[in-house]
């Protein structure tokens, strides 16, 4: 285990990346982002690793950013934080990505799945993207990718109103390939990843690029979001909302 991220490689060419910080609902620190970024970089550089599976703990995929850790160095904007370095690598990773989502998937826990080729969820999976209510903006190119998947109106509801999607709703919208019992979830995700890993690699890579479309647009959206995120981090409304969240107090503007 490295910084609450467990990485293991199977003989079938599948790398398993497990977010392992259950005492904090798998909230992600800078060190955890770095560990996951390196795991993806290594996968792309290795001929032996041909698919990557993201998973969490029973009942929790990830609660998103650990805001205390995220705000610990206020002089560093979003553009200089490990979270954005991970997101950039996530968007450009050539190795097929699979997610096994059990329980809460908040913020990056939800937007990460938009970059995955296959996504499976347990019945208790809950996806939520509460960026705007925290005085921030969407990240991980979700402002571009989510409308492509679910349409602009539904994406607006999810990104601006922070509506929660349960597993069945996510499946109906095409954000999840299948919903299955929690005790079958990881094995199924690993088996599907192994199927990807066994395919002819040239054809798989070329087909994946065709299916995913224009990566330049994804990266442009990602960078535009990062610039807006930086600006919002400096805003009074964001500072108020984030501090209120950390203290579990209702912000004055919401009273």
UniProtKB/TrEMBL annotation:
<dbReference type="InterPro" id="IPR001753">
    <property type="entry name" value="Enoyl-CoA_hydra/iso"/>
</dbReference>
<dbReference type="InterPro" id="IPR029045">
    <property type="entry name" value="ClpP/crotonase-like_dom_sf"/>
</dbReference>
<protein>
    <submittedName>
        <fullName>Enoyl-CoA hydratase/carnithine racemase</fullName>
    </submittedName>
</protein>
<dbReference type="Pfam" id="PF00378">
    <property type="entry name" value="ECH_1"/>
</dbReference>
<dbReference type="InterPro" id="IPR051053">
    <property type="entry name" value="ECH/Chromodomain_protein"/>
</dbReference>
<keyword id="KW-0576">Peroxisome</keyword>
<keyword id="KW-0413">Isomerase</keyword>
């Amino acid at each position: 285990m490295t910084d609450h991220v467990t990485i293991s490689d199977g003989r079938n060419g599948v790398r398993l990346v497990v977010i392992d910080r259950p005492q904090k609902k798998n909230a992600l620190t800078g060190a955890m982002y770095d560990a996951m970024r390196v795991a993806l970089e290594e996968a792309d550089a290795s001929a032996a690793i041909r698919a990557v599976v993201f998973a969490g703990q029973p009942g929790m995929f990830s609660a998103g950013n650990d805001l205390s850790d995220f705000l610990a160095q206020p002089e560093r904007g979003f553009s200089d934080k490990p979270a954005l370095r991970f997101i950039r690598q996530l968007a450009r990773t050539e190795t097929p990505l699979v997610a096994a989502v059990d329980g809460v998937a908040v913020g990056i826990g939800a937007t990460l799945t938009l970059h995955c080729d296959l996504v499976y969820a347990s019945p208790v999976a809950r996806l939520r993207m509460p960026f705007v209510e925290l005085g921030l903006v969407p990240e991980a190119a979700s402002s571009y990718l989510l409308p492509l998947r679910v349409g602009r109106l539904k994406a607006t509801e999810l990104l601006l109103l922070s509506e929660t999607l349960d597993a069945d709703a996510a499946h109906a919208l095409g954000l999840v390939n299948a919903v299955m019992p929690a005790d079958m979830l990881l094995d199924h995700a690993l088996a599907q990843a192994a199927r990807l890993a066994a395919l002819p690699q040239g054809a798989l890579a070329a087909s994946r690029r065709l299916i995913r479309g224009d990566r330049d647009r994804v990266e442009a959206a990602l960078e535009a979001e990062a610039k807006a995120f930086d600006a919002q981090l400096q805003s009074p409304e964001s500072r108020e909302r984030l501090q209120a969240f950390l203290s579990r107090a209702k912000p004055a503007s919401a009273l």
